[in-house]
Amino acid sequence: MHRLRLFLLVFVVLGLGAGCKKEKTDLKAALLTGKNWQITAIAITSTGSQTGTVDGYALLQPCEKDNYLRFSSDKTLVLNEGASRCPDTEQQSAGSWDARSDYSTLTIQLNRYSRIAGIQMDIVTLEENQLVLKSTVVQPDQTVVTTTTFSGQ
Q1: Which of 40, 94, 105, 123 is deepest in the core (most CB within 10 A)?
Q2: Residue 51 sits in a domain of what CATH number?
Q3: Residues near 85 by beta carbon (within 8 Å), at least 6 away in sequence
Q4: What's the CA angle centered on 152, arms 38 and 54, to 5 degrees?
Q5: Are 137 and 144 in contact, with CB atoms under 8 Å apart?
Q6: What pLDDT does 134 receive?
Q7: Which domain does 47 fall in, by range?
Q8: Which pLDDT score, from 0 to 100, does residue 65 have?
Q9: Which residue ranges of the chain lie beneath pLDDT 70?
């Protein structure tokens, strides 16, 4: 009888833990989806043959600074040009997204850039109004880390 109680207790605890994990994942998905994410900062840091940090946001054209991403719960993604559209670009570009089950990484694929495979980034911060993504590109003589900060609207 004692073994049966112990078995039931372990089963209940494991079941509760699994339920909490799903709730945490659902919460993170809810934080990401259903709002517009606009870039507010880009830091590009290089180490190796060329070392330094560049303000990537300052390199954007004025018509790119109001662009935003919108993630949907069905794993579709829209890049919207915002109010100031760049010449020769569509107002919207469709794509898709996926996240690792623990929301530690995010993969984005935009149809506009179909020749490029999905871009995988680490999720540094995912909060109600802030999303910070980091990508790392390692080359033989240089490593480039890009940290992009988005504001949720």
Answers
A1: 123
A2: 2.40.128
A3: 63, 91
A4: 45
A5: yes
A6: 97
A7: 33-152
A8: 95
A9: 1-25, 113-117
Q: Which H or E element spans position 47? A: strand 36-48
Buried b or exposed e, range 74-86, using 16+ CB within 10 angstroms = eeebbbbbbeeee
**Residue 134 and residue 136: Cα distance in Å, rounded?**
7
| Within a domain: 53 | yes
Specify the DSSP class assigned to residue 113: G
Structural domains counted in the chain:
1
Closest CA to 80 of 88, 92, 89: 92
Which tens digit of pLDDT belongs to each residue from 8-40? Answer: 333 333 333 444 445 555 889 999 998 999 999
Question: What's the pTM?
Answer: 0.79
Is 6 contained in some domain?
no
54 in a structural domain: yes
User: What is the pLDDT at residue 12?
Assistant: 35
